[in-house]
Amino acid sequence: MADVKARNPVEPEFHQAVFEVAESLTLVLDRHPEYRRAKILERIIEPERVVIFRVAWQDDAGELHVNRGFRIQTNSAIGPYKGGLRFHPSVNLGILKFLAFEQVFKNALTTLPMGGGKGGADFDPKGKSDSEVMRFCQAFMCELFRHIGPDTDVPAGDIGVGAREIGYLFGMYKRLRNEFTGVMTGKGLTWGGSVIRPEATGYGAVYFAAEMLKTRKQDLAGKTCLVSGSGNVAQYTVDKLISLGARAVTLSDSAGYIYDEAGIDREKLAFVMDLKNRQRGRISDYADKFKGSVYTSIDPALDHNPLWNHKADCAFPSATQNEINEKDAANLLRNGVYVVSEGANMPTSVAGVEQFLEAKILFGPGKAANAGGVATSGLEMAQNSMRISWTREEVDARLFNIMRTIHEVCHGTAEKYGTPGNYVNGANIAGFLKVANAMVDQGVV
Ligand code: NDP
Questions:
Q1: Rounded distance, CA 122 to CA 338, Å?
Q2: What pLDDT shows up at residue 347?
Q3: Domain 46-182, CATH 3.40.50.10860 — does that match?
Q4: Which of the residues 118, 240, 367, 434 is marked catalytic?
């Protein structure tokens, strides 16, 4: 870790992601000295390629803006680089390196042939017009297109990059390359997208929670669930929770959260989807619209997030990294939460994860629990290559099977390495072994 910190200064999220994996891997490296000799961990930590570029664009008033664009291509041992693009003012090299690093293990767990990458820009789509977002996406793609391709690197969405942005990015790529290929996933249904891709991450996180509960002979029916975020992942998490008879009582955005004791039903969820995806409004409007719900603004100076301080059975953090700190984790445990399925990437701090593991609750780390999104992106790539489209039932069944397999593999691996019930070790070790073996086979590259 000292070496990682020295070589990658000022990248705390990247250090955190590496630390968490490295801790699990001591169990493997002790049993398999050949990985140490081949310096597999050192090689996985160092991205194969990092591209940083200027993105200059003009707003509606004619003013010029300069943003910074990135693509991190971390590992291609088992397939083309694959991972989302994030547009958010907080984006920097360290955050994208952590996300790309996590993606390597996550993609390996899906059973599909995908390497790991991630990218994005410190651009904030909030408050921008559609034309401004389009001009930004086009300027971004004018550089990115040289580094990606259907057999090289296939980006998708992430925070701030949804259906609208994917459309503008794909349109510019197609124009520049004069090729209609599956270079991006999350595409619209009439131009190469897959059904269930928008739903996949949220659905997958709920399927994973259901699989964890099955090990205790329980299911989600009647369970009270805390969900954070109100974007893509949060929306479809709530959707699937409703289908399975659970009661989701919270949603949030970066300004605050709503608590709805009665539960978020289909009508309320439809309101949230319209509010967030079309009107691009704030979650506080939910409390204005639905009596009995309460909106609380979140003070960033507070040492905890009040959303995690309600009585519940399950938590689905679906907003962003480190949204559950040490105090939040303690609050969750005190309030009776015994299932945490991470829809977001690394939403729990190291100290929070330690508490969950110590309390022996059902804790599904993001790289396993939210792998449904990238898995369905893999299914979109497969459909694009074959030039066919599967039905909703077919894709959902495949997604479900993939989530069940990921659960089985993580559960079995944790047991095999002497830490039964520890899905963190299970996911890190199983993901690592697949990539490590491919790297050993391919020699020193
Ligand atoms: P969206 O942009 O659709 O939604 C993000 C949500 O999180 C919004 O409600 C946003 O609020 C909130 N949020 C973002 N940043 C912060 C912050 N710093 N503090 C508090 N709230 C914040 O993104 P997604 O739903 O796609 O992604 C959510 C998480 O899931 C991310 O961690 C992402 O990496 C992860 N993920 C996503 C996948 C996908 O398929 N989309 C796949 C796997 C993981 P506001 O509107 O105010 O910004």
A1: 36
A2: 98
A3: yes
A4: 118
Give the chain's length: 445
Cα-to-chain-centroid distance, residue 135: 26
Residues lining ligand 1, judged by CB closer than 6 Å? 157-160, 162, 201, 229-233, 253-254, 318-320, 343-345, 370, 373
Q: Ligand 1, atom 33: nearest CA belongs to which residue?
A: 344
Q: Report the C-alpha gap between 183 and 173 in whole angstroms.
A: 8
Are 110 and 402 in contact by the 8 Å Cβ rule? The answer is yes
pLDDT of residue 27: 85
Q: Is 246 left (phi over 0), alpha (psi -120 to 50) or beta?
A: beta
Q: In this structure, how many other beta carbons lie within 10 angstroms of the beta carbon of residue 128?
A: 17
- Give every CB contact of residue 414 below 8 A, 6+ residues apart in sequence: 420, 421, 422, 423, 425, 426, 429
The domain locations on the chain are 46-182, 200-369
Let me know: does 257 contact 298? Beta carbons within 8 Å. yes
**Ranges under pLDDT 50 in the chain:** none
Question: Tell me, what amino acid is at 370?
Answer: N
Render pLDDT for 109-138 as a digit per residue (tens, 0 to 9). 999 999 999 999 999 999 999 999 999 999
Q: How far apart are CA 8 and CA 12, in angstroms?
A: 9
**Rg for the chain (alpha carbons), in Å?**
21
Identify the CATH assignment for 200-369 out of 3.10.20.600, 3.40.50.720, 3.30.420.40, 3.40.50.2000: 3.40.50.720
Does the fold of domain 200-369 match that of domain 46-182? yes
- Cβ contact 23:354 at 8 Å: no
Q: Which of 287, 199, 184 is nearest to 243 (CA)?
A: 199
- 434 catalytic residue (yes or no): no
What atom in ligand 1 is closest to the CA of residue 347?
Answer: 32
Residue type, 104: V
Mutate-to-test residue for ligand 1 from 95, 232, 328, highest number of ligand atoms within 8 A of CB: 232
